[in-house]
Amino acid sequence: MRKKTLLLLMLCGFALASTAQQPPLSRCSVNNINATIIGDGSCFAKLATVNSDNCPTWEVPAGSGKETVFQHTLWFGGLDADDSLHLSAFRFGQVGQDYWSGPLTTTNATIDMMTLLKYYHVWNLTHEEIDFFIAHHDEAGYETPDDILTWPAHGEGDYAANLAPFVDVDGNGHYDPEAGDYPDIKGDQCLYFIFNDSYKNHTESGGSKIGLEIHAMIYAYSDSEDEALNNTVFVNYQFFNRSANDYHDVYLGLWSDFDIGYGWDDYIGCDVLRGSYFAYNGTPIDGYGEPESYGENPPVQVLTILAGPYMDADGRDNPKYNGDCDALFNETHPADKYAYNGFNFGNGIADDERLGMTGFLYHNNSSAINGDPSTAPEYYNFMRGIWKNGNHMQYGGNGYEGPNVVGPECNFMFPGDSDPCNFGTNGIAPNEEYNTGDKFWTEDECQNIPNDRRGVGLVGPFSFNAGSTQVIDYAMITVWNNESLSAIERKGDFIDHIRDLFNHGFSK
Q: How far, in Å, are 71, 97, 379 from residue 11 at the CA level?
């Protein structure tokens, strides 16, 4: 029996008790990935449907019964003008709920039950369906798919007038499929949903409400000739501050509980320069013959940030990183360092720079100092690289104590050789000759015992003022070995290729 069967039953019971119906879910399954998308903020999640059929979180190859992700969710937190913490987060829903379906009013950041139920849905469309609609919508006998007819383009009353993006064929500003208007989607398959953090009090993290409305577009491409693209799913989140609060020192966390097949023999790491974190098998053979284990040559699961939230404006086109490490750490312009793995730096446009991954923290499935967070301040500390005891993460070992913890303070765990400029230690070289020669901080180097790995990719700080919008784009990539290279050796090329496709609008 799998390690988290009890959790599945608890989650199923919670979903049924809180909504009296099946959670709003759908499948992204156009390529080699078969992923379950939950439309209430838990995103790629391990839940059970009302008929008790288990929904795969991240089944790869599709149809194999083997998975690399057990749960993947969103954390978001910052301080208001009084420096009071507001935070929403989700892990398993064992404790409660911080996110709910639907938009928020623009007047007081609330949502009523009827509106929640209206948006208790994941819209699932393919590019093929859209093309067929464009060609045949005005023909007799054509039946428009429900997800085109009900596309949530507009809010009513106090809700925002414009929500989901659409192509306005007749140019009247109103979504009307009968006039030929259609959803503006990304990818060969697109899943779209809207959720918020303010329907009720936060019972998962205990954090104060933000007034956060989130528009999510999950999409993928089918291309059997492009291995990396055919094993990738993309995520675009748009964040709307519907509250009256201006937030500062805001951090965003992308949290993953990876299970590479058998869930108790994994390692985790990050690639600082590429703005990515990943999980891989800590043993040559995955598992012990269980149905869910990969056996020989297990894959590597990667999350890479393609473009993060917008950096706070400073009136400059911050220079691009050109390989000069000394130029990164400019005392006059400290934000210039984010060019290391950020976006839109040095493009001739002021104040369009977007952050990359600014930290990565691994934690254990436990209640220890480096175990699972349980309170809003603990979540927020983790999002700033701070352990539950208030101490900042340290370079080496387990990041907080023991003989292999050499310092200094750092923002990335297990970066390997991916940080030649020491971005994660603010330009300070790690102690005891780490990051030089062949000595790099990895789980292998620490000789850790493989186990159940969890980690959160961090982005921040940034501001989130009342009425403003922020955005993040990232990709989840499953990497396989080939005849000459292991999955670990290939992951860099996969990340670079996916980033290049994204930066060029997926034109090949």
A: 12, 11, 21
Are residues 180 and 144 in contact, defined by beta-carbon separation less than 8 angstroms?
A: no
The CA–CA distances, whole Å, from 68 to 32, 65, 235, 279 equal: 13, 10, 17, 9
**How many other CB atoms sit within 10 Å of the CB of residue 209?**
21
> Residue 469 carries which DSSP code?
E
Tell me if 280 is assigned to some domain: yes
Cα 249–376–384 angle (5° rounding)?
A: 40
How far, in Å, are 21, 22, 90, 91 from residue 17 at the CA level?
Answer: 8, 10, 18, 18
- Which amino acid, residue 18? S
Name residue 274's amino acid.
Answer: R
Tell me, yes or no, whether 365 lies in a domain: yes
250, part of any domain: yes
Determine which helix (DSSP H) or strand (DSSP E) holds 337, and give its type and residue range: none
Half-sphere exposure of 282 (CA within 13 A, CB side): 22
Phi and psi for 445 in degrees, rounded to 5?
Answer: -60, -35
What 3-state DSSP class applies to 131?
Answer: helix
* Tally of domains within the chain: 1
C-alpha distance across the termini of the chain, in Å? 44
**pLDDT tens digits, residue range 458-467?**
999 999 999 9
CA distances from 491 to 110, 276, 393, 409, 479 (A): 43, 10, 26, 27, 6
* pTM score of the predicted model: 0.94
* Cis amide bond preceding 408, omega within 30: yes
Locate the DSSP E strands across 242-373.
Answer: 247-258, 266-271, 276-281, 285-286, 295-296, 300-307, 359-363
Q: Return the residue matching tokens 């909504």.
A: 19
Residue 473, beta-bridge partner list? 236, 307
Task: Please state, in angstroms and rounded to a whole number, the distance separating the CA atoms of residues 21 and 359.
Answer: 38
Is pLDDT above 70 for 49? no
What single-letter amino acid sits at 483? E
d(CA 199, CA 93): 16
Q: What does the alpha-carbon distance between residue 302 and residue 282 come to, in Å, rounded to a whole number? A: 15
70: containing domain = 5-99+197-310+354-503
> Tokens for 399?
């990041």
Tens-place pLDDT, residues 51-65: 334 577 899 999 999
In percent, the amount of the chain with pLDDT more than 90 equals 84
Residue 132 lies in a domain: no
The span from the CA of 45 to the CA of 444, in Å, is: 29
Of the candidates 357, 332, 356, the one whose C-alpha atom is nearest the C-alpha of residue 345 is 356
